[in-house]
Amino acid sequence: MTDKRRLGASELRIIPLVLGGNVFGWTADRDASFAVLDAFVAGGGTMIDTADVYSAWVDGHRGGESETMIGAWLRERGVRDRVLIATKVGMLPGEGGEKLAPARIVAACEASLLRLGTDRIDLYFAHQDDEQQPQEAVAEAFATLVQAGKVRVLGASNFHAGRLKAAVEAARAAALPHYQVLQPEYNLVSRHRFEGELQDYCVTENVGVVPYYGLASGFLTGKYRTSDDLSKSVRGARMGDLLDGRGAAVLGAMDAVAAESGATLAQIALAWLIAQPGVTAPIASATSATQVEELLGATAIRLTADQLERLTTAGA
Fold it and tell me: Is the pTM higher than 0.85?
């Protein structure tokens, strides 16, 4: 059984892999979603990450599809007390306004609770920063949810260092709950949004980090290696820049580590993240039970110092 890690200074403890829920109700239908969720829990998985906006970008969808699917699974399987649920507010407009308007935070939480069929959200993220709202007012809105027992821990996603620090300080000054978890974009080929000041702050302040895009939308699985591969999926068009940049060098270093360790490229990409300072657990999504088993395998891999250095250098 994989050891659990404490998520920053919060009360939550999770294995070093979070299951991404963006595919549920989108590229994974009910049967596929349930199979993925079942496999994750059977394999010792602890936290599922979703958002109210998943998957509003699909024609005919309004948002909430992922939460609704997870809620149906929770009810049918009766496993609410066995998993931690993380969701987000700030990208789906609706009752109360847009982004992090205080009234929107409260209304969106109620809507998420209803879709999930639960009485509490274990980890509630501000999905993006909102510079139009006073940070103390945002903190007060989140505090009402914590004080009501509807939210256990607060997190921030897509915040840069200065704004995260200011938000935490504003909440602390008002004796309100503050962000204890950060969800940034971070992987072997996209490091600039986290490394440096933001990572240093998280390490110093013991902010737990659960990065998204851990596999760079599939690039780090080795699926895209030549220009001919870019037509393999709708995401392929975005992979050309990675191939032209540091992507080829990173894949080469990963191939060498794979030959040495027997691990898959996806497992190596996640294992590298798991080993980075400040990172508690990367987020990765799957559309089949087989993929879940592969992803969970990353939690058992221990890359050597030399392997970590070679991977880090290739992506620098």
Answer: yes
